[in-house]
Amino acid sequence: MQAQKLPYQTSRIELLFEPSSQSIVPIDIEKLAPHPLLKTLYGQDPSDNLASSLKAIGQISPLLVEKMDQGFQVLSGNRRLLAARELGWKSLQAIVCKPSDDHQRQWWILESNHQRSKTFSQKMREADLMEHLVKDESRTRSLANLSVGPKLRVFDGSECLNSDTPDLAEVEHLTELLSTQTPQTTKKSFPRRSDTQIAKAIGLGGKDLYRQARAVWKAAQANDARALSSVKELDGGGKTVFAAFKDLRRRDHLATDFKPTPYDVWLFKHDRAYGTRYPGSIPAGIVANTLHYFTEPGDLVVDPMAGGGTTLDVAASLNRKCLGFDLSPSRPEINLWNIAREPLPESANGCDLIFLDPPYHSMLRSSYAEGSVSDHNQDDWKLVLERIFDHAKTAIRPGGHLAVLIANQTEKDIPDGWGYVDHAFDLLQILIKQGFLPQRRVTCPMEGAYRPDQIQKSRLNKRLLGQVRDLIVVRKPVE
Ligand SMILES: C[S@@+](CC[C@H](N)C(=O)[O-])C[C@H]1O[C@@H](n2cnc3c(N)ncnc32)[C@H](O)[C@@H]1O
Fold it and tell me: For 349, which of 42, 233, 368, 411 is 20 to 30 Å away at the CA?
Protein backbone atom coordinates (compact mmCIF):
# COMPACT_ATOMS: atom_id res chain seq x y z
CA MET A 1 0.00 0.00 0.00
CA GLN A 2 1.36 3.43 -1.00
CA ALA A 3 1.75 5.67 2.03
CA GLN A 4 0.03 8.94 1.23
CA LYS A 5 1.48 12.27 2.45
CA LEU A 6 -0.84 13.97 4.88
CA PRO A 7 -0.86 17.58 6.08
CA TYR A 8 0.35 16.47 9.51
CA GLN A 9 3.39 14.92 7.90
CA THR A 10 5.73 16.56 10.38
CA SER A 11 3.99 15.05 13.38
CA ARG A 12 6.07 12.96 15.73
CA ILE A 13 3.54 10.17 15.50
CA GLU A 14 3.94 10.15 11.75
CA LEU A 15 7.68 9.89 12.26
CA LEU A 16 7.05 6.85 14.35
CA PHE A 17 4.84 4.84 12.09
CA GLU A 18 4.09 6.67 8.84
CA PRO A 19 0.32 6.42 8.84
CA SER A 20 -1.39 6.02 5.53
CA SER A 21 -4.59 7.83 4.71
CA GLN A 22 -6.55 4.68 5.49
CA SER A 23 -5.21 4.70 9.04
CA ILE A 24 -7.72 7.41 9.89
CA VAL A 25 -11.10 5.87 10.48
CA PRO A 26 -14.36 6.94 12.08
CA ILE A 27 -14.87 5.15 15.39
CA ASP A 28 -18.07 4.83 17.38
CA ILE A 29 -17.84 7.15 20.39
CA GLU A 30 -19.35 4.49 22.66
CA LYS A 31 -16.31 2.35 21.99
CA LEU A 32 -13.81 5.03 23.09
CA ALA A 33 -12.40 5.35 26.62
CA PRO A 34 -9.44 7.48 27.78
CA HIS A 35 -6.18 5.83 28.82
CA PRO A 36 -5.75 6.29 32.64
CA LEU A 37 -2.38 7.98 32.13
CA LEU A 38 -4.15 10.97 30.56
CA LYS A 39 -5.84 11.64 33.89
CA THR A 40 -2.58 11.18 35.81
CA LEU A 41 -0.77 13.65 33.57
CA TYR A 42 -3.42 16.22 32.80
CA GLY A 43 -6.02 15.78 35.55
CA GLN A 44 -9.73 15.88 34.91
CA ASP A 45 -10.04 17.30 31.41
CA PRO A 46 -12.65 20.00 31.04
CA SER A 47 -14.12 20.16 27.57
CA ASP A 48 -14.31 23.99 28.12
CA ASN A 49 -15.10 25.71 24.86
CA LEU A 50 -13.88 22.83 22.70
CA ALA A 51 -17.44 21.70 22.02
CA SER A 52 -18.35 25.01 20.37
CA SER A 53 -15.18 25.04 18.29
CA LEU A 54 -15.73 21.41 17.31
CA LYS A 55 -19.26 22.30 16.28
CA ALA A 56 -18.13 25.34 14.33
CA ILE A 57 -15.10 23.98 12.50
CA GLY A 58 -15.35 20.25 12.84
CA GLN A 59 -12.69 17.83 13.94
CA ILE A 60 -9.33 19.25 12.90
CA SER A 61 -7.12 16.38 13.94
CA PRO A 62 -7.80 12.72 14.54
CA LEU A 63 -7.63 11.06 17.93
CA LEU A 64 -4.86 8.56 18.54
CA VAL A 65 -6.39 5.32 19.79
CA GLU A 66 -5.32 1.79 20.51
CA LYS A 67 -7.55 -1.15 19.87
CA MET A 68 -8.34 -3.15 23.01
CA ASP A 69 -10.21 -6.39 23.49
CA GLN A 70 -13.32 -4.34 23.84
CA GLY A 71 -13.38 -0.96 22.19
CA PHE A 72 -10.53 1.51 21.83
CA GLN A 73 -8.36 3.32 24.36
CA VAL A 74 -7.73 7.01 23.65
CA LEU A 75 -4.06 7.93 23.85
CA SER A 76 -4.61 11.46 22.65
CA GLY A 77 -7.77 13.49 22.21
CA ASN A 78 -9.69 13.02 25.44
CA ARG A 79 -10.91 16.62 25.40
CA ARG A 80 -12.16 16.17 21.85
CA LEU A 81 -13.93 13.01 22.99
CA LEU A 82 -15.64 14.84 25.88
CA ALA A 83 -16.66 17.69 23.60
CA ALA A 84 -17.99 15.32 20.94
CA ARG A 85 -20.03 13.50 23.61
CA GLU A 86 -21.44 16.85 24.70
CA LEU A 87 -22.46 17.52 21.10
CA GLY A 88 -24.06 14.13 20.76
CA TRP A 89 -21.71 13.04 17.99
CA LYS A 90 -21.80 9.37 17.25
CA SER A 91 -18.27 8.91 15.98
CA LEU A 92 -14.87 10.55 15.83
CA GLN A 93 -12.03 10.19 13.37
CA ALA A 94 -9.05 8.40 14.83
CA ILE A 95 -5.70 6.89 13.99
CA VAL A 96 -5.57 3.35 15.30
CA CYS A 97 -2.15 2.45 16.54
CA LYS A 98 -0.64 -0.55 18.22
CA PRO A 99 2.29 0.24 20.48
CA SER A 100 4.71 -2.62 20.88
CA ASP A 101 4.95 -2.29 24.65
CA ASP A 102 3.94 -0.04 27.53
CA HIS A 103 7.03 2.14 27.14
CA GLN A 104 6.16 2.89 23.56
CA ARG A 105 2.54 3.51 24.53
CA GLN A 106 3.61 6.04 27.18
CA TRP A 107 5.93 7.80 24.73
CA TRP A 108 3.16 8.01 22.18
CA ILE A 109 0.84 9.48 24.77
CA LEU A 110 3.43 12.14 25.61
CA GLU A 111 4.25 12.89 22.04
CA SER A 112 0.74 12.98 20.69
CA ASN A 113 -0.30 15.35 23.48
CA HIS A 114 2.66 17.60 22.82
CA GLN A 115 0.65 20.43 21.36
CA ARG A 116 -2.10 20.84 23.92
CA SER A 117 -1.77 23.88 26.16
CA LYS A 118 -0.56 22.80 29.58
CA THR A 119 -0.22 24.16 33.06
CA PHE A 120 3.13 24.08 34.84
CA SER A 121 2.08 20.98 36.82
CA GLN A 122 1.01 19.14 33.67
CA LYS A 123 4.34 19.92 32.01
CA MET A 124 6.25 18.73 35.05
CA ARG A 125 4.22 15.53 35.28
CA GLU A 126 5.12 14.92 31.65
CA ALA A 127 8.77 15.60 32.50
CA ASP A 128 8.58 13.11 35.40
CA LEU A 129 7.30 10.44 33.07
CA MET A 130 9.90 11.25 30.39
CA GLU A 131 12.71 11.09 32.92
CA HIS A 132 11.38 7.78 34.15
CA LEU A 133 11.07 6.36 30.64
CA VAL A 134 14.45 7.63 29.51
CA LYS A 135 16.12 6.20 32.57
CA ASP A 136 14.33 2.94 32.10
CA GLU A 137 14.75 2.47 28.40
CA SER A 138 17.63 1.29 26.37
CA ARG A 139 20.05 4.10 25.73
CA THR A 140 19.72 3.76 22.02
CA ARG A 141 16.36 5.49 22.02
CA SER A 142 16.68 9.09 21.00
CA LEU A 143 14.65 12.07 22.08
CA ALA A 144 15.84 14.09 19.11
CA ASN A 145 12.51 13.77 17.35
CA LEU A 146 10.39 15.12 20.14
CA SER A 147 9.29 18.26 18.35
CA VAL A 148 5.82 18.01 16.96
CA GLY A 149 4.56 19.96 13.99
CA PRO A 150 1.03 21.13 13.35
CA LYS A 151 -1.74 18.64 12.67
CA LEU A 152 -4.11 20.16 10.21
CA ARG A 153 -6.26 17.38 8.82
CA VAL A 154 -9.73 18.87 8.92
CA PHE A 155 -12.81 16.76 9.25
CA ASP A 156 -16.31 18.02 8.94
CA GLY A 157 -18.50 17.50 12.03
CA SER A 158 -21.39 16.37 9.85
CA GLU A 159 -19.16 13.77 8.30
CA CYS A 160 -18.57 12.43 11.78
CA LEU A 161 -22.21 12.62 12.70
CA ASN A 162 -23.28 10.79 9.62
CA SER A 163 -20.52 8.31 9.41
CA ASP A 164 -21.38 4.74 9.99
CA THR A 165 -19.68 2.67 12.59
CA PRO A 166 -16.15 1.84 11.47
CA ASP A 167 -15.51 -1.08 9.30
CA LEU A 168 -13.96 -3.29 11.96
CA ALA A 169 -12.31 -5.53 9.44
CA GLU A 170 -10.50 -2.52 8.06
CA VAL A 171 -9.55 -1.30 11.52
CA GLU A 172 -8.16 -4.70 12.31
CA HIS A 173 -6.22 -4.69 9.09
CA LEU A 174 -4.80 -1.24 9.84
CA THR A 175 -3.98 -2.13 13.39
CA GLU A 176 -2.08 -5.08 12.10
CA LEU A 177 -0.34 -2.95 9.55
CA LEU A 178 0.68 -0.33 12.08
CA SER A 179 1.98 -2.93 14.46
CA THR A 180 4.47 -4.06 11.83
CA GLN A 181 5.91 -0.54 11.62
CA THR A 182 8.87 -0.22 13.90
CA PRO A 183 9.35 3.10 15.66
CA GLN A 184 12.12 5.22 14.29
CA THR A 185 15.30 4.91 16.29
CA THR A 186 18.69 6.47 15.87
CA LYS A 187 22.10 5.01 16.30
CA LYS A 188 23.16 7.89 18.51
CA SER A 189 23.18 6.67 22.08
CA PHE A 190 21.20 8.81 24.48
CA PRO A 191 23.02 10.07 27.56
CA ARG A 192 21.41 9.17 30.87
CA ARG A 193 19.01 12.01 30.41
CA SER A 194 19.13 15.33 28.74
CA ASP A 195 17.59 18.28 30.51
CA THR A 196 17.77 20.28 27.31
CA GLN A 197 15.71 17.75 25.40
CA ILE A 198 13.16 17.25 28.12
CA ALA A 199 12.83 21.03 28.56
CA LYS A 200 12.18 21.34 24.84
CA ALA A 201 9.78 18.43 24.78
CA ILE A 202 7.58 19.85 27.52
CA GLY A 203 7.87 23.38 26.15
CA LEU A 204 9.71 24.93 29.08
CA GLY A 205 12.58 26.73 27.38
CA GLY A 206 16.17 25.67 27.97
CA LYS A 207 17.85 23.38 30.46
CA ASP A 208 18.55 26.11 33.02
CA LEU A 209 14.90 27.03 33.29
CA TYR A 210 13.99 23.36 33.40
CA ARG A 211 16.42 22.75 36.27
CA GLN A 212 14.91 25.65 38.18
CA ALA A 213 11.43 24.29 37.50
CA ARG A 214 12.53 20.85 38.62
CA ALA A 215 13.89 22.21 41.92
CA VAL A 216 10.55 23.92 42.66
CA TRP A 217 8.59 20.85 41.54
CA LYS A 218 10.71 18.52 43.66
CA ALA A 219 10.19 20.65 46.76
CA ALA A 220 6.45 20.70 46.07
CA GLN A 221 6.42 16.91 45.68
CA ALA A 222 8.03 16.74 49.12
CA ASN A 223 5.01 18.73 50.38
CA ASP A 224 6.94 21.91 51.02
CA ALA A 225 4.18 24.47 51.61
CA ARG A 226 5.99 27.39 49.97
CA ALA A 227 6.86 25.35 46.88
CA LEU A 228 3.26 24.08 46.70
CA SER A 229 2.04 27.65 46.81
CA SER A 230 4.51 28.60 44.05
CA VAL A 231 3.29 25.71 41.88
CA LYS A 232 -0.28 26.93 42.33
CA GLU A 233 0.77 30.39 41.19
CA LEU A 234 2.76 28.94 38.27
CA ASP A 235 -0.29 26.93 37.18
CA GLY A 236 -2.41 30.06 37.27
CA GLY A 237 0.20 32.01 35.32
CA GLY A 238 0.76 34.41 38.23
CA LYS A 239 4.44 33.67 38.72
CA THR A 240 7.46 32.89 36.61
CA VAL A 241 9.63 29.81 37.07
CA PHE A 242 12.57 32.07 37.77
CA ALA A 243 10.72 33.93 40.55
CA ALA A 244 9.60 30.65 42.13
CA PHE A 245 13.13 29.32 42.02
CA LYS A 246 14.56 32.54 43.45
CA ASP A 247 12.14 32.34 46.37
CA LEU A 248 13.18 28.76 47.00
CA ARG A 249 16.87 29.64 46.94
CA ARG A 250 16.53 32.69 49.14
CA ARG A 251 14.55 30.97 51.84
CA ASP A 252 17.52 30.47 54.09
CA HIS A 253 18.95 33.93 53.75
CA LEU A 254 17.62 34.92 57.17
CA ALA A 255 19.45 31.97 58.72
CA THR A 256 22.76 32.91 57.15
CA ASP A 257 22.57 36.62 56.58
CA PHE A 258 20.18 38.34 58.99
CA LYS A 259 21.06 41.83 60.14
CA PRO A 260 18.50 43.06 62.67
CA THR A 261 17.53 46.69 62.22
CA PRO A 262 18.67 48.84 65.20
CA TYR A 263 15.81 51.35 64.87
CA ASP A 264 12.17 51.24 65.90
CA VAL A 265 10.87 51.85 62.40
CA TRP A 266 10.66 48.60 60.46
CA LEU A 267 9.95 49.17 56.81
CA PHE A 268 10.31 45.96 54.82
CA LYS A 269 9.14 44.70 51.49
CA HIS A 270 7.20 41.44 51.18
CA ASP A 271 9.58 38.54 50.93
CA ARG A 272 8.04 35.64 49.04
CA ALA A 273 10.71 33.29 50.33
CA TYR A 274 8.81 33.24 53.66
CA GLY A 275 5.15 32.40 54.06
CA THR A 276 2.84 31.49 51.22
CA ARG A 277 0.88 34.04 49.21
CA TYR A 278 -2.03 34.96 51.46
CA PRO A 279 -4.41 37.91 51.91
CA GLY A 280 -2.88 40.24 54.49
CA SER A 281 0.45 38.39 54.70
CA ILE A 282 3.27 40.44 56.18
CA PRO A 283 6.94 41.06 55.35
CA ALA A 284 9.24 38.45 56.91
CA GLY A 285 11.46 41.27 58.25
CA ILE A 286 8.83 42.27 60.82
CA VAL A 287 8.69 38.75 62.26
CA ALA A 288 12.47 38.28 62.06
CA ASN A 289 13.16 41.45 64.04
CA THR A 290 10.46 40.62 66.59
CA LEU A 291 12.03 37.21 67.16
CA HIS A 292 15.51 38.72 67.35
CA TYR A 293 14.63 41.37 69.95
CA PHE A 294 12.13 39.44 72.06
CA THR A 295 13.12 35.76 71.97
CA GLU A 296 16.21 33.52 72.05
CA PRO A 297 17.17 30.58 69.80
CA GLY A 298 15.27 27.46 70.90
CA ASP A 299 12.34 29.49 72.31
CA LEU A 300 8.76 28.53 71.55
CA VAL A 301 6.84 31.03 69.41
CA VAL A 302 3.08 30.76 68.78
CA ASP A 303 1.09 32.41 66.01
CA PRO A 304 -2.66 31.93 66.65
CA MET A 305 -3.66 33.69 63.38
CA ALA A 306 -0.96 32.22 61.19
CA GLY A 307 -2.48 32.96 57.74
CA GLY A 308 0.12 32.04 55.09
CA GLY A 309 2.63 30.96 57.74
CA THR A 310 5.21 33.76 57.60
CA THR A 311 5.93 33.33 61.32
CA LEU A 312 6.44 29.57 60.94
CA ASP A 313 8.97 29.97 58.13
CA VAL A 314 10.90 32.81 59.77
CA ALA A 315 10.98 30.98 63.12
CA ALA A 316 12.40 27.87 61.41
CA SER A 317 15.10 30.01 59.76
CA LEU A 318 16.02 31.68 63.04
CA ASN A 319 16.06 28.44 64.97
CA ARG A 320 12.97 29.03 67.07
CA LYS A 321 10.27 26.41 67.64
CA CYS A 322 6.89 27.55 66.35
CA LEU A 323 3.25 26.50 66.53
CA GLY A 324 0.78 27.96 64.05
CA PHE A 325 -3.01 28.06 64.38
CA ASP A 326 -5.74 29.59 62.27
CA LEU A 327 -9.49 29.53 61.81
CA SER A 328 -8.84 28.46 58.24
CA PRO A 329 -5.45 26.71 57.96
CA SER A 330 -3.69 27.28 54.62
CA ARG A 331 -0.90 24.75 55.19
CA PRO A 332 -0.66 21.33 56.83
CA GLU A 333 1.62 22.62 59.61
CA ILE A 334 -1.06 25.12 60.66
CA ASN A 335 -3.64 23.69 63.05
CA LEU A 336 -7.31 24.51 62.98
CA TRP A 337 -8.16 26.64 65.99
CA ASN A 338 -10.54 29.48 66.78
CA ILE A 339 -8.62 31.57 69.31
CA ALA A 340 -11.65 33.83 69.81
CA ARG A 341 -13.68 30.90 71.07
CA GLU A 342 -11.30 28.98 73.30
CA PRO A 343 -7.90 29.29 74.99
CA LEU A 344 -4.94 27.94 73.06
CA PRO A 345 -4.31 24.17 73.33
CA GLU A 346 -1.93 22.79 75.95
CA SER A 347 0.92 22.54 73.42
CA ALA A 348 1.13 26.34 73.45
CA ASN A 349 1.36 26.64 77.24
CA GLY A 350 4.56 28.20 78.56
CA CYS A 351 5.45 29.71 75.17
CA ASP A 352 7.98 32.53 75.07
CA LEU A 353 6.25 34.76 72.55
CA ILE A 354 2.89 35.02 70.87
CA PHE A 355 2.91 36.87 67.58
CA LEU A 356 -0.56 38.10 66.73
CA ASP A 357 -1.45 39.58 63.35
CA PRO A 358 -5.26 39.85 63.44
CA PRO A 359 -7.42 41.21 60.62
CA TYR A 360 -7.29 45.01 60.99
CA HIS A 361 -10.98 45.09 61.80
CA SER A 362 -12.91 45.05 58.49
CA MET A 363 -9.90 45.32 56.13
CA LEU A 364 -9.89 42.29 53.76
CA ARG A 365 -13.00 40.99 55.55
CA SER A 366 -14.23 39.15 52.47
CA SER A 367 -10.91 37.28 52.16
CA TYR A 368 -11.24 35.47 55.49
CA ALA A 369 -13.34 32.48 56.48
CA GLU A 370 -16.71 32.80 58.13
CA GLY A 371 -16.34 33.30 61.87
CA SER A 372 -13.24 35.47 61.47
CA VAL A 373 -12.87 38.26 64.01
CA SER A 374 -13.29 40.65 61.08
CA ASP A 375 -16.99 39.69 60.91
CA HIS A 376 -17.75 41.80 63.99
CA ASN A 377 -18.60 45.46 64.24
CA GLN A 378 -15.85 47.64 65.66
CA ASP A 379 -16.91 47.51 69.32
CA ASP A 380 -17.38 43.75 69.27
CA TRP A 381 -14.10 43.31 67.36
CA LYS A 382 -12.34 45.04 70.27
CA LEU A 383 -14.13 42.85 72.81
CA VAL A 384 -13.12 39.72 70.89
CA LEU A 385 -9.49 40.89 70.76
CA GLU A 386 -9.63 41.52 74.50
CA ARG A 387 -10.69 37.89 74.97
CA ILE A 388 -7.88 36.74 72.66
CA PHE A 389 -5.33 38.75 74.69
CA ASP A 390 -6.67 36.97 77.77
CA HIS A 391 -6.11 33.58 76.14
CA ALA A 392 -2.63 34.69 75.09
CA LYS A 393 -1.81 35.74 78.63
CA THR A 394 -2.77 32.30 79.90
CA ALA A 395 -0.41 30.58 77.43
CA ILE A 396 2.63 32.90 77.66
CA ARG A 397 5.18 32.05 80.36
CA PRO A 398 5.78 34.72 83.04
CA GLY A 399 8.24 37.19 81.52
CA GLY A 400 7.30 36.15 77.96
CA HIS A 401 6.02 38.55 75.30
CA LEU A 402 2.95 39.26 73.24
CA ALA A 403 3.47 41.16 69.96
CA VAL A 404 0.38 42.57 68.23
CA LEU A 405 0.57 44.03 64.74
CA ILE A 406 -2.21 46.50 64.04
CA ALA A 407 -2.97 49.25 61.50
CA ASN A 408 -5.00 52.44 61.84
CA GLN A 409 -8.44 52.38 60.31
CA THR A 410 -8.71 55.22 57.81
CA GLU A 411 -11.31 54.25 55.23
CA LYS A 412 -14.45 52.26 56.07
CA ASP A 413 -16.46 52.05 59.31
CA ILE A 414 -15.18 55.28 60.84
CA PRO A 415 -17.50 56.72 63.58
CA ASP A 416 -19.30 59.95 62.65
CA GLY A 417 -17.06 62.97 62.87
CA TRP A 418 -13.86 60.92 63.26
CA GLY A 419 -11.04 61.13 60.73
CA TYR A 420 -9.56 57.74 61.63
CA VAL A 421 -9.52 55.07 64.36
CA ASP A 422 -6.26 54.55 66.22
CA HIS A 423 -6.48 50.82 66.93
CA ALA A 424 -2.94 50.58 68.30
CA PHE A 425 -3.73 53.23 70.91
CA ASP A 426 -6.97 51.50 71.92
CA LEU A 427 -5.49 48.00 72.04
CA LEU A 428 -2.47 49.15 74.06
CA GLN A 429 -4.84 50.54 76.67
CA ILE A 430 -6.69 47.22 76.83
CA LEU A 431 -3.40 45.33 77.19
CA ILE A 432 -2.22 47.60 80.00
CA LYS A 433 -5.56 47.15 81.76
CA GLN A 434 -5.05 43.39 81.50
CA GLY A 435 -1.77 43.69 83.38
CA PHE A 436 0.69 43.45 80.48
CA LEU A 437 3.78 45.69 80.65
CA PRO A 438 4.44 47.82 77.53
CA GLN A 439 7.84 47.13 76.01
CA ARG A 440 7.86 48.83 72.67
CA ARG A 441 5.74 50.34 69.97
CA VAL A 442 7.47 49.83 66.62
CA THR A 443 6.30 51.59 63.46
CA CYS A 444 5.90 49.06 60.63
CA PRO A 445 4.51 51.06 57.68
CA MET A 446 2.49 49.10 55.18
CA GLU A 447 3.91 48.90 51.69
CA GLY A 448 2.06 51.54 49.69
CA ALA A 449 0.04 49.67 47.12
CA TYR A 450 -2.22 52.50 46.07
CA ARG A 451 -3.25 53.08 42.47
CA PRO A 452 -2.30 56.33 40.70
CA ASP A 453 -5.98 57.43 40.65
CA GLN A 454 -6.24 56.89 44.43
CA ILE A 455 -3.08 58.94 44.93
CA GLN A 456 -4.43 61.73 42.73
CA LYS A 457 -7.77 61.70 44.55
CA SER A 458 -6.07 61.82 47.93
CA ARG A 459 -4.11 64.96 46.94
CA LEU A 460 -7.19 66.56 45.47
CA ASN A 461 -9.48 65.76 48.42
CA LYS A 462 -6.75 66.40 51.01
CA ARG A 463 -7.31 62.95 52.41
CA LEU A 464 -4.23 61.02 53.54
CA LEU A 465 -3.91 57.40 52.45
CA GLY A 466 -3.34 55.04 55.38
CA GLN A 467 0.04 53.39 55.80
CA VAL A 468 0.46 53.59 59.56
CA ARG A 469 0.81 50.21 61.22
CA ASP A 470 2.32 49.45 64.61
CA LEU A 471 3.73 46.50 66.40
CA ILE A 472 2.86 46.72 70.07
CA VAL A 473 5.06 44.51 72.21
CA VAL A 474 4.01 43.86 75.81
CA ARG A 475 5.39 41.55 78.47
CA LYS A 476 3.61 39.29 80.91
CA PRO A 477 4.85 40.24 84.38
CA VAL A 478 6.86 37.77 86.45
CA GLU A 479 4.66 37.42 89.51
C1 LIG B 1 -3.81 39.24 58.60
S2 LIG B 1 -4.05 37.52 58.41
C3 LIG B 1 -2.54 36.83 59.02
C4 LIG B 1 -1.47 36.86 57.96
C5 LIG B 1 -0.18 36.22 58.40
N6 LIG B 1 0.49 36.99 59.42
C7 LIG B 1 0.72 36.02 57.21
O8 LIG B 1 1.79 36.64 57.14
O9 LIG B 1 0.37 35.26 56.30
C10 LIG B 1 -5.20 37.22 59.71
C11 LIG B 1 -5.56 35.75 59.91
O12 LIG B 1 -6.40 35.64 61.07
C13 LIG B 1 -7.25 34.51 60.89
N14 LIG B 1 -8.35 34.59 61.86
C15 LIG B 1 -9.38 35.45 61.88
N16 LIG B 1 -10.18 35.19 62.94
C17 LIG B 1 -9.63 34.12 63.60
C18 LIG B 1 -9.98 33.38 64.76
N19 LIG B 1 -11.06 33.68 65.48
N20 LIG B 1 -9.16 32.35 65.15
C21 LIG B 1 -8.07 32.03 64.42
N22 LIG B 1 -7.70 32.70 63.30
C23 LIG B 1 -8.46 33.74 62.89
C24 LIG B 1 -7.65 34.64 59.44
O25 LIG B 1 -8.12 33.38 58.97
C26 LIG B 1 -6.34 35.09 58.80
O27 LIG B 1 -5.63 33.97 58.36
Answer: 368
User: How far does the centroid of ligand 1 lie from the alpha carbon of residue 359, in Å?
Assistant: 6
Residue range 110-134, pLDDT digits in tens: 888 877 788 999 999 999 998 888 8
* Closest by CA position to 101, among listed 59, 138, 146, 152: 138
Residue type, position 407, single letter: A
Give nearest CA residue, ligand 1 atom 27. 307
Choose one of 368, 375, 381, 469 to mutate for the ligand 1 pocket test, by most ligand atoms within 8 angstroms of C-beta.
368
CA 218 to CA 239: how far, in whole Å? 17
The class level of CATH for 253-475 reads alpha beta
Strand 334-336 with 321-326, pairing: parallel
Query: What residues line ligand 1, using a CB cutoff of 6 Å?
Result: 275, 278, 280-282, 304-305, 307-308, 310, 326-328, 337-340, 357-359, 368-369, 372-373
Write down the number of H helices and E strands in the chain: 18, 12
List, as one string, the DSSP characters of 264-285.
Answer: SB------TTSS-S-TT---HH
Question: What is the pLDDT at residue 306?
Answer: 98
Nearest CA, atom 26, ligand 1: 307
DSSP state of 441: E
Could you read off the pLDDT of 173-215 as tens digits, one per residue?
444 444 443 344 333 344 445 888 888 888 888 889 999 999 9
Residue 307 Cα to ligand 1 midpoint, Å, equals 5
In whole angstroms, what is the distance from residue 260 CA to residue 251 CA? 17
Asked if domains 12-118+142-187 and 253-475 share a fold, the reply is no
**Are the CB atoms for 402 and 474 separated by under 8 Å?**
yes
* 297, 302, 308, 309: CA torsion to nearest 10: 20
As assigned by CATH, the class of the 12-118+142-187 domain is: alpha beta
Q: Are strands 91-97 and 321-326 parallel, antiparallel or unpaired?
A: unpaired
| Sequence spans of domains, the chain | 12-118+142-187, 253-475
Residue-wise pLDDT for 421-476, tens only, equals: 999 999 999 999 999 999 999 999 998 778 899 999 999 999 999 899 999 999 99
- 465, 450 in Cβ contact below 8 A? yes
